[in-house]
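Handout, section B. The chain below has 607 residues.
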Amino acid sequence: MSGNGKSGSQNAWGDRIRALRNVPPVLKILWDSGPSVVTWGLSLRIVVAAMPWAIAGVASRIIEGVKQSVDHQPLQPHFAWLVGAEVALAIVFSALTRAIDYTDSLLADRYTHHVSIEVMRQAARLDLTTYEDPDFYDRLERARVQATDRLAMIQQMGRLFLQVLTTIIWSAQLVWYSPWLMLLLVVGVLPAFFGETHFAFLGYAKNFRQTPIKRVMDYLRQVGGSKEAAKELKLFNLSDYLTNRFAALSEQIYKENVDLSRRKLMWGGLLSLLGTCGYYGAYVFAIWEALHGKYNVGAFFLITTSIQQASGNLQQAFSTASGIADQALFLTDLIGFFELKPIVQSKPNALPAPKPIRRGFEFRNVSFAYPGTDRRVLKNFNFSIQPGQRVALIGENGQGKTTVVKLITRLYDPTEGQILLDGIDLREYSLDDLHREMGVIFQDFMRYEMTVRENIGVGQVEIPHSDAEIALAAEKSLAAEVVKKLPGGYDQMLGRRFVSGLDLSGGEWQRIALARAYLRDAQLLILDEPTAALDAKSELEVFERFAELTSGKMALLISHRFSTVRMADRIVVLAGGRLVEEGTHQQLLALGGQYAEMFEMQAASYR
């Protein structure tokens, strides 16, 4: 048992030391967020650190002068100037302290702004694979919290810089008079410092352990008060069930927090007594030496002030350093998040996407398994689509249709095999340039709580679009009919999150989403089950328009409705991750295979 405890203690201290490696990256982030503000803040602190010592030095001269006057001796020359100097120094000190507070508030705003943007940019750079890892969501949640909640660490760094400078100045004064005074102070403060760092680590470990629980609580809180869940909460009497689950988890976290706080109160109080003993030990020692004639009254005042200032700043510096170590532990996930590198990315000097595409896309013996699994979604898959072709992918759920879309758009790279564009591997092309030539709408498309104009405009944010271009895209997708009914037209806010927002039906949202794809005027247009919420008549209208507008372009269509896929130039049937049939609607019916069987099953439901 004792061996395990020793090992755990060593690991804890190792984690604390390793966590300090997070400080330099945070300092870089801090510098990048506002170099001029950081420079001014440090410069002001250097001046402010020396001013209390200067004020105390002048005050000791004043005290000596007062004593001389009490002893009926003539005042020192320029005594009035000494008094005026102390007043002036105090005024300047107060003004500079306020200036530090001002620069700190500016830096806090700049840091929050900068790091929040960097978290968003980094999240956008990461692979789609990353977002399918549940552990990543815990890390991402901690990184998002740490990005803004670690302002305390930024403030503590500035405070520590000032405290260390001030401690050095006062400690030098003490060492000048007697090194033993400084030794007494340090011996008293060290145990409290180690105690603080120990509980800082325990606090980090507790919060790390509680992150998954807090995510569950956030989910329960969201479900318990969401518009989408309101109907089922009432009909199935789920409110008490969800509330009780939340309460149980909340109580668990509360008990853990109280247990740690109680232990910290007891041991922290005991260790702080040692610091008090060290302070008064130095104080009594200074009195003893003064009584034995070693110091005059001015020197005694300066020594006792130095003891008070050195002790206070030394304890504060250790406490602040402990707090920074605590914050550094919490920053592990933020720094680790920034260090994540996407696997799917452009090579240096990547090729631009061909304009126009001449030979099209080709899958050569492509196999693919999602990270973390051994099951091959695609197995030796061979497929091609040439310019001007409209190809439909069909198959039962889980056969790899959406995976084909993710691979052709290079959201993933194949596990085995190659995907070629005009005979060149997709990995040789610039990823951003490749995506600019593609227009994709998924079944789970985004419903942006923005205006209609912005909802359509996100289809191609690289360039500004005129009202006429936005309206033309809406006409192509039949979304214009929806817009005509809205009070604000293209300036109507959609969704219920913001004031004056209006929600749309599923089919209306889908037409808005389709307009994004048409806005891109891409060489490859992909519709992955985007019309699932439309009725059969509306879907037919959308795809008749789709067939008309994709004339001369490559179009890849996924749909379960055979009334729409039959208009494709070529139909590809997937089963077991392989291409099992392909041809026109009539050819596949005549083949009497899997396509014909699925078609007959669907047609029978309409008879």
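Note. The first strand starts at residue 361 and ends at 369. Compare this with the example in section A.
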